[in-house]
Amino acid sequence: MDIRQMQYFLEVARNQSFTKAAEKLYITQPTISKTIRNMEDEWGVTLFHRAGKRIELTDAGHIMYQQAQQMVEAFQRVSAELEDLMNLRRGHLRIGLPPMVGSSFFPEVIGQFHKSYPKITIQLIEDGAKKVEADVESGQTDIGVAVLPVNEEVFHYYSFVKEKLNLLVHPSHRLAGRDSVNLKELAEEPFVLFREDFTLHDRIIRECVEAGFEPRVVYESSQWDLISGMVAANLGIALLPETICKEIDSSRVSILPLDNPSIPWQLGMIWRKDRYLSFAVREWIAFTRGLLGEQE
C-alpha cells in the first residue's frame, strides 16, 4: 500500500461516494474502485459497506481511516519541509572562521545572506585556520575559511583574498619610516605571533628559517588587535595581513611593506570533496562566491 492509495481511500470516505471522489481527484471512477478493491484484497478486510450509490465505512474502514489520515498528514509535512529546504527557506550552516577573518570580512556577508534566506540559521565556530581545516575534514563543520594552500585531494575551495603580510613596528623602532624591509633584517627582533593553532604561526616561522634565522617569539595571541597592541607597547614586532593592517591605528604603530621575500596570505572557502552538501551549504558557497569574488 502506498500514499496514493491512502489518499484515494480518504477521499472516498469523506465523500461517501466513488464518483464524487473520482471527480475531486480528477481520475476515473473505475480507477478509484480498483484501488480500493486492491487495498481490501491486500489487507483481507472490507473497508466499505456498499448500499446502492451510498457507501459507509466498516469497522475495519474506520481503523484504516484514522491511520491513513495520520500517515498522509505526515507525508504532507515531510513534503512541505523538503520543499522548504529545496527552495532554501530553511536549513542550518556550521561555518568555521578564524577570528581575524570573521571580524574583517564576514559581518556584512552574513547580514546579506540572512536577509536573503532568513530561515537558514548559521552557527559560527571561531578557531585558528588549522583547527578550522581539521573540523571541515572531520565533518564537525560544513564549511570553513582557511589559509591556502590546503590539501586538494581532500578539499574543494575557492580563493577570495590574495595579499601579503606587512611588518608592524613601534614608531620609535630603528626600521620605522623605511619604504620596505628585508625579512633578514628581523633576525634579532622579538616576534609577537599568533598561537600555534593559527596557520600564520607556522608560515612566518618557516619563512624566517628559509631566510636564515629562527625567530625569537616573545608573545603569542589569538587576537590581531592584541598583537598590534603589544607592538604599540614596544614589546616586539609583528607580521599581519594587509587587510588587518588597514584597521590598525597607524599613529600607534608603523606599518611597512615586507619584501625579499614577501610573505603571501591567501584565504579560501573550503569544503570536503567527498561529503554531501546540503542545499543551504551549496547556496552559501554560490552566494559568497558572487559577493566576495574569486581570486586566481
Mean pLDDT: 90
Structural class: alpha/beta
CATH class of the largest domain: Alpha Beta
End-to-end C-alpha gap: 55 Å
Poorly predicted regions: none
Radius of gyration in whole Å, from Cα? Answer: 32 Å
CATH architecture assignment name of the largest domain:
3-Layer(aba) Sandwich
User: What name does the CATH topology of the largest domain carry?
Assistant: D-Maltodextrin-Binding Protein, domain 2
Strand content: 25-35%
**Number of helical segments with 4 or more residues:** 10
Count the beta strands: 12
Number of domains: 3
Overall outline: rod-shaped
- Give the SSE order as H and E letters: HHHEEHEHEHEEEEHEHEHEEH
